[in-house]
Amino acid sequence: QLQLQESGPGLVKPSETLSLTCFVSGGSISSPGYYWAWIRQPPGKGLEWIGSIYYDENTYYNSSLESRVTISADMSKNQFSLNLNSVTAADTAVYYCARHPQAPNFEYWGQGTLVAVSS
Amino acid sequence: QSVLTQPPSVSAAPGQRVTISCSGSSSNIGTNVVSWYQKVPGTAPKLLICENNKRPSGIPDRFSGSKSGTSATLDITGLQTGDEANYFCGTWDGSLHAHVFGPGTKVTVL
């Protein structure tokens, strides 16, 4: 059974960089055909897709965040990461990692991790 | 502001049926498949419906999805108290080049 688990600081200061890692078990992130994504949900709001990385490490991002986002993968550790720089309070959210095929079906999700941006 | 529109809430008594709509446009629902997710506060979203009307393994047939034109619908029959949750639709938007989600619909079992 594929499992994903987010890890990272729960508090980030404004203007700094938010860094999260998603540890994947029960499957390989280098398996062809799957994308590995970051999605967030601000308090009281809906889901927002941040970006995805393919098994070949190609990436694509939400244009609204693209200038501040980097998603990378460490195939040897079977994990992928999110860096979001120049954060503000508007970046406070529960951050999820997930897997999807080319179709927009986010099949597996991590439990989510709350990241607050505050001084 | 989402490019997909859902009603904020729907409610029904146990055993009854609820229908949740998801309205979009030609750049998203009109040309791409739709998925539906169940989100209980404090837990991860669960994929209920993929590719408009397919149920992943383990999802009861009380949940069904359909799509027509630029709108999609999630039906829940035989409503149970455990179905109380927020339900989101999702798809790809070709104009935004982004995966997009609806704002969510809260289902209340009376």
Describe this structure in words.
- The complex is a heterodimer of chains A (119) and B (110).
- Chain A has 119 residues and is an all-beta fold.
- The mean pLDDT of chain A is 95.
- Chain A is globular and about 40 Å long.
- Chain A starts with a strand and ends with a strand.
- Chain A is built from no helices and 11 strands.
- The mean pLDDT of chain B is 96.
- In chain B, the strands form 2 sheets. In chain B, strands 1, 3, 4, 7, 8 and 9 form a 6-stranded mixed β-sheet that branches. A 3-stranded antiparallel β-sheet of chain B has the order 2-6-5, with no helix packed on it.
- Chain B contains no helices and 9 strands.
- The N and C termini of chain B lie far apart (29 Å).
- The chains are: A mainly beta (119), B mainly beta (110).
- The A-B interface holds A 37, 45-49, 52, 60, 62-64, 96, 103-107, 109-112 and B 2, 32-33, 35, 37, 39, 43-47, 50-51, 56, 88, 90-92, 96-104.
Secondary structure: elements and pairs:
The complex is a heterodimer of chains A (119) and B (110).
Chain A: E1 3-7, E2 11-12, E3 18-25, E4 35-41, E5 48-54, E6 59-61, E7 69-74, E8 79-84, E9 93-100, E10 108-109, E11 113-117
Parallel strand pairs in A: 2-11
Antiparallel strand pairs in A: 1-3, 3-8, 4-5, 4-9, 5-6, 7-8, 9-10, 9-11
Chain B: E1 9-12, E2 18-23, E3 35-39, E4 46-49, E5 63-68, E6 71-76, E7 85-93, E8 98-101, E9 105-109
Concise synopsis of the structure shown:
The complex is a heterodimer of chains A (119) and B (110). Chain A has 119 residues and is mainly beta.
What labels would you give this structure?
heterodimer; A: 119 residues; mainly beta; 4-stranded antiparallel β-sheet; 50% strand; B: 110 residues; 6-stranded mixed β-sheet; 3-stranded antiparallel β-sheet; 45% strand
